[in-house]
Amino acid sequence: MTPFQQLLSQSHLAQYRVEPGTRVDLSARDPDETGPFEKKKKARKELERLRTKLIALQDRFYAWNERSLLIVLQAMDTGGKDGTIKHVMRGVNPQGVQVTSFKAPTQEELAHDYLWRVHKAAPRRGRIGIFNRSHYEDVLVVRVHNLVSESVWSKRYDHINDFERLLADSGTVILKFYLHISREEQARRLQARLDNPDKRWKFSKGDLKERRLWDDYMAAYEDALSRCSTEHAPWYVIPSNRKWYRNLAIMSILVNALEDLNPVYPEPEEGLDHIVIE
Ligand code: AMP
Ligand code: MG
Fold first, then answer.
1. Closest Cα to atom 14, ligand 1: which residue?
2. Residue 145 Cα: closest atom of ligand 1
3. Average pLDDT for 134-140
4. Structural domain includes residue 44
5. Residue with the nearest Cα to atom 18 of ligand 1?
6. Ligand 1 binding pocket includes 135 (Cβ within 6 Å)
7. CATH for 257
8. From the CA of 203, how far away is ligand 2's center (Å)?
9. Sheet of 172-180: strands edge to edge?
10. pLDDT per position as a tens digit, 211-262
11. Considering only CA atoms, which of 154, 112, 119, 148 is closest in space to residue 135?
């Protein structure tokens, strides 16, 4: 293949998928990996080719109005959830996209079961829904900080699989991305937030406390990724130390999923051929 034809093959992307029933070892997955691309410059053309495709596919998906698509983004702090949304969805018609960012639950949310707020945010037909954090926090931060007892959180993997099956059976395609960065890369990015006045607002001292719990988070992530990657809602572990490669890989998987759905414009009303607008 010449350098001008480089693209991310389906088989390469398949390596990022967590095969249902298998155990994930995050330490064995390289967050620096960039597939067939050496440098950002070499991937630019492919990124723009995919963007053109994504915009056209989303236009059809919205008009088709038959199915929903849910993208779940999870990552450690600085992992790139916000950047992924900004860069992957650039140019896509905002009318067909809804982003929901899940923060610590409110009093009202805490007065319900943990999936209540999540189910309400599930995308309606024709829409792409993006979860910036998600119900997975209820087996991640909640588990790491013992916000509920193990007897409570340990049941949640089954709830989550059943909940995602309900969405899938109702016509939602679900793609879940874990943005995999190294602890060293997180240090660089946190430092950059401190050093750049325009990024400081993103820094929270609490992030340092979470960083110290890195290993606990990795263990919780490995369980969530291993136990909740299913045929109807697979997890992908995306190498994310290089932001441009992360964007490219996610965009490729998204374009492939939309192409598989093959959305079509609805049939127009009959008898339009002879209408002339005066
Ligand atoms: P950020 O993504 O930086 O805006 O931070 C959102 C915060 O909300 C993070 O610290 C999450 O851990 C926290 N959060 C999200 N969902 C939950 C949840 N279900 N329970 C507790 N904390 C949560
Ligand atoms: Mg934060």
1. 104
2. 21
3. 98
4. yes
5. 104
6. no
7. 3.40.50.300
8. 7
9. 97-101, 128-132, 68-75, 172-180, 235-239
10. 999 999 999 999 999 999 999 999 999 999 999 999 999 999 999 999 999 9
11. 119
